[in-house]
């Protein structure tokens, strides 16, 4: 999966796929959604009992989730934006992305270097 000529994203979950592998965008998204679901369902990461503590690495897990979700946005904007425009759906994508990026910036969930593929767009949302 890519986000323009400079950015290629490979998949690794650290468990079943330890060494990053090259996959198509649909396969990357499939792996990602399955992986996120497993993280959300894991009570040692996202406890469901009231008063149960979150693990010490909770923020790192959430940061990884958001970093990988950002990669999907980067791919969509670089590879499919014209199709989205032709469907007159860009306002929806832009609104979702704006909420996503404002949330991630508010809580410091994605390192600035990871945002590089969409930096110009992000600067229209959040001028630095």
TrEMBL record:
InterPro entries: MOB_kinase_act_fam, MOB_kinase_act_sf. SMART domains: Mob1_phocein. Gene3D superfamilies: MOB kinase activator. Pfam families: Mob1_phocein. PANTHER family: MPS ONE BINDER KINASE ACTIVATOR-LIKE MOB. This is Uncharacterized protein. It comes from Glycine max.
């Amino acid at each position: 999966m890519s986000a323009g000529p400079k950015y290629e994203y490979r998949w690794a979950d650290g468990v079943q796929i330890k060494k990053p592998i090259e996959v198509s965008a649909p396969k990357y998204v499939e792996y990602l959604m399955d992986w996120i679901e497993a993280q959300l369902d894991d009570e040692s990461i996202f406890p469901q009992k009231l008063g149960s503590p979150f693990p010490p690495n909770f923020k790192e897990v959430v940061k990884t989730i958001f970093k990988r979700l950002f990669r999907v946005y980067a791919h969509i904007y670089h590879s499919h934006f014209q199709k989205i425009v032709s469907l007159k759906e860009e306002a929806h994508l832009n609104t979702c992305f704006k909420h996503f990026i404002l949330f991630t910036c508010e809580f410091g969930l994605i390192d600035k270097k990871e945002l590089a593929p969409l930096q110009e767009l992000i600067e229209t949302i959040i001028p630095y």
